[in-house]
Write a structure and sequence with these properties.
175 residues; mainly alpha; 51% helix
Length: 175
């Protein structure tokens, strides 16, 4: 679960493709059709929560075709805010396990920064910057000082909290 919450188990991402599950693992789990993004990540999360054992292999059994016009490759729009719907559902399931909750909170802050960078880099969806800033700051306040936030992340949080225009300008210059 620790590896899953950091977004990887070995070199494996969170998406449902590229995984083989025993049918009883997902007998009562279905993709949430109300989600347009992250529905497969949530499905994988639910399967991981029910799994007793997970095995990984470096061997390729699946070749993924990257569709340039897929939802994930389109400029930022409001649908990508569903990342937080999924993360909040996962947090609700993990409630009470502080270690795993904090790992997921770090992933939530990281997601807010990643989406902010995407918006600034593409110059699209700028009306979501305020919301992403709020998510990043509120979530970062929930993480204990012992949780292992990197110094780079702490710097981003500081800049976003006290000097958001400077932070956005630095992102623009980077892109």
């Amino acid at each position: 679960m620790n590896a899953y919450l950091f977004g990887m188990i070995g070199n494996i991402n969170l998406a449902a493709w590229g995984k083989i599950f025993k049918s009883e693992t997902f007998a009562d789990i279905r993709f949430d059709e109300t989600l347009t993004v992250q529905e497969d990540a949530y499905f994988t999360f639910e399967c991981v929560m029910k799994s007793e054992k997970i095995a990984c292999t470096e061997r390729s059994f699946y070749y993924y075709f990257q569709n340039p016009s897929s939802t994930m490759n389109k400029p930022f729009d409001g649908s990508k805010m569903q990342y937080f719907t999924v993360l909040d559902r996962e947090l609700e399931i993990l409630k009470g396990n502080r270690t795993l909750e904090e790992r997921l909170l770090i992933r939530k802050v990281t997601t807010a920064f990643d989406l902010t960078s995407k918006i600034v880099g593409e110059n699209s969806g700028t009306d979501y910057l305020k919301c992403l800033r709020q998510i990043a700051l509120e979530t970062s306040e929930q993480i204990s000082t012992k949780a292992g936030i990197s110094s780079k992340m702490r710097t981003k949080i500081f800049l976003l909290k006290h000097f958001p225009s400077v932070y956005y300008k630095l992102l623009r210059n980077r892109h």
